[in-house]
Amino acid sequence: MRRGTLRNSAWTVAAFGIAVVLMACGSSSDDPNAPDTNNPNNPNNPNDPNNPNNQPKTPEEQVKQILDARQYDYGEALRTASLKLRDELPTLDEIKQIEGAPDNAAKKVAYEKIVDAMIADVKFNAVMVKFWKDTFRSGNAQNAQGDIMPQAPKPSLSTAAVFAARTTINGSYLDLLTATTNTCPTFDYTAKTFVDGNCAQNPTVGVLTDPGILAQQFANMAFRRSRWIQETFACSKFPAQFSKTPTPMGNGTYTGVMPFDNLVGKKNTPAARIDFQDTQAVICANCHSDHGAAPLFINYDANGLLQATPQVEVPIPGNPKAKKEDFYVAGTVFKWRESSPQPYTDIPTLGASLAADPEIARCAVNRVWNYAMSRGDIVNDLATVPNAVTETYFKDFTAGGYKLKETIRAVFKSEDFTKF
């Protein structure tokens, strides 16, 4: 499906090419309607440098020209919205409502009423569960009744996505990072409704302590758990932050914002089991300096349950269990971002730091935009979204209580979605 908007640069480039061809085809002297280029008094003379129509357009003006040329097509928008909001094609009655409307204003009213009905339908609940399973890259297989629960003590891999879906429909997006109760609901696929449930975890911090997520991301030194948080909620890969004053070191440059000497390595800890200060080849510290959250998750076992002692291993001979002193020197202060007002010391304060970061909210809005516009994943597919494209939605989202359902509603009713 090709939609006329800034997000599809290939389409934009193709449109520029078509425009050039059309202009070339229309400039033949055989064209009886071609402007008289020999008449200097002709106000439309394309050779006149003073003619404002002949001034070169900036890239922004060219893109605006293309966007302004789009036309509303509420029938096409209805079809796409129906597939995305309830996973089925529109009904004949809905199609006729759009076709029978006398003008675009009436079509708009009919279309938006149908979108509201789709979002209010329980089928939307199931679509959101699938959306979050895809986003979290998690989830159990399903049968006719719902998710097939694994054998104990294995946790469900679906509860985080179900919780996120329920929060999207009826809650604040920030609950995903801060909620302390009812964060492990299940989903009834027959009734398409949510069933309350608490995680077997203390403390409980949104999806950050979800046993299924922690089990799925179990790996050496808990780095996969830290990476999952970064990519899912900040929409970017490591390195997450870059210093304003990069420092040449060894065979590379250290670009992290964490003081280099705070990382454990042979330079400051001769007995270090992993040398994060190694600069002989790549500068490992550029990524690992951002893994401040990893030590918070080392006591969660392969089933995602909190234990009294470390459970993840260090990838060296003998595979010993990781210790907090393997990561950073004692006394290191951790912040989610250099600009964060407060440091974090545990998972609850980490969740609060995430919730306070505007880029976390922007990531959520941009994911909704990509979903509506049939784009790929922001991180895995590099389907990034310019902030200018989603700025209005972002402002409304943050000012309106972080209600992601309302962002979805706004995007599916937007000009970019309904024009082609």
Structural commentary:
This protein has 420 residues and is mostly helical. The chain folds into 4 domains: 1-25 and 56-70, no CATH class; 74-121, no CATH class; 124-211 and 355-418, no CATH class; 217-350, no CATH class. It has 16 helices and 4 strands. It has helices spanning 9-25, 59-68, 74-86, 92-99, 104-120, 123-136, 159-169, 175-178, 211-216, 223-234, 285-288, 347-356, 358-372, 387-399, 404-413, 415-418; strands at 186-188, 193-195, 247-249, 252-254. The strands form 2 sheets. A two-stranded antiparallel ribbon has the order 1-2. It has a two-stranded antiparallel ribbon with strand order 3-4. The longest helix has 17 residues, at 9-25. The model is unreliable at 4-32 (pLDDT under 50).
The low-confidence runs, each spanning 5 or more residues with pLDDT under 50, are: 4-32
Distance between the termini: 10 Å
Mean pLDDT: 89
Alpha plus pi helix count: 16
Question: What attributes characterize this protein structure?
Answer:
mainly alpha; 420 residues; two-stranded antiparallel sheet
Give the helices and strands, then pairings.
Elements: H1 9-25, H2 59-68, H3 74-86, H4 92-99, H5 104-120, H6 123-136, H7 159-169, H8 175-178, E1 186-188, E2 193-195, H9 211-216, H10 223-234, E3 247-249, E4 252-254, H11 285-288, H12 347-356, H13 358-372, H14 387-399, H15 404-413, H16 415-418
Antiparallel strand pairs: 1-2, 3-4
Helix pairs in contact: 3-5, 4-5, 5-15, 6-7, 13-14, 13-15, 14-15
Could you provide a short overview of the structure?
Helix content is 40%, strand content 3%.
